[in-house]
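Structure ticket #2291
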Amino acid sequence: MITVAEINDIERLDHFRLAWRDLLGKTRGATFAHSPEWLEHYWAHFGKGLKLRVLFVTLRNKIIGIVPLVVKPVATPLGTVRVLTYPLDNWGTFYGQIGGNSAATMVSAIRHIRSTRRDWDLIDLRYVDQDGHDHRRTANALKSVGYQGSSAPWRRLSLVDTSDTSWIEYLASRSPEAREHIQQSEEITARDGHVSFYRSRLEDPLAPGWNPRWDLWSQFEQMDFRHGNQTLIAGGAHTLRQKLDFLRGIHGPASRSGMARIDALFVNHRVVAFAYGLQHAAGTDYLAIGRAPDTNPETVTTLISNMIQQSILDGEPAVNLSLLSPSAASLWQNSVRHSYRCSHYPLTVPRSQLLRLNRWMQQPVASPKANGSPAMVSDSQASREIESSIELAAIAPEDWPEENNMQVEPDSERPPFRIVG
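Resolution: structure written out below.
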């Protein structure tokens, strides 16, 4: 028999660490953001005003899947709405359940959410890899318990595919303007002296001399992350100080897991630009890029150029710069993917229904293809829809409703339990 246990206290997470790590090795598309260490640091830095809901799905007293969730306040023109969602906040590309039994885990978790007291106003599960590992399991799990399970694009991911290519072939695929910009940037950077590039290597943390490069990290925190009118650091609406403190917190455990990456550009043996990312099987998600305050902006372009060249030489599948800035990533992209959001708007919550109507009105209409099959929404249309979407507040507003004022949805309409996907 499948059962679900829920914990709401981050301190209890340590009791499940071994089981969590075992399931992490069975998770398709796993990243460091799926680890218990990620959730612990996320909660320590961004958990104020949020409610933790980590669901452990068990079969015959053995944990077969984990679904980490949080209830977050969202400030909207209609008032504060409580959203049940994943703990990611634009620090990663894709997210979802943990373990090898995807369908059973998601259906069991959503059934548990359906049968317990509602402390949320809408469900908005973002960063779903619907075209990849998820295979619509999240949407189907929502529908299996009578929820809407509406699915829509969430993020347009501008990627650099570094597999099966060379730097010359990749450069030839860029526009003449892009090639000229890259060449001029490298020439400007080289005027100041000898240019060299460093990339941290995966090492066994138990090996003698293992070094997570905290010496470089101290210089990283002094970098200027502004690039034009943008800030090249992921993490949504949190402050720069909050973001840097969070990255410093995860660097140790990410390094021990072999997932932290440091790229640095040196001129005359001095760090002039720095990039930090998290590696996984599908590539590297870069979370921050900065340059020394007294250097030219062109050093950032030179650094990214060296990053891509090194990834091609290493045979890395892809480089993801879209978490930093979609517009900055567009210069380098040669591949595009999308993440999705799966949502449910309870009929008994008026604010939720108004948000649903608002989102529906803002959603672009795709014209059908000539053969009658539905056409894909263009990237520009999708980006407009995404930009109009509500974002999550970092701190709970004062008008966040009390839980005891919420109604409990009746269980009588809940359909029989089934596993889909």
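Closing remark: The radius of gyration is 22 Å.
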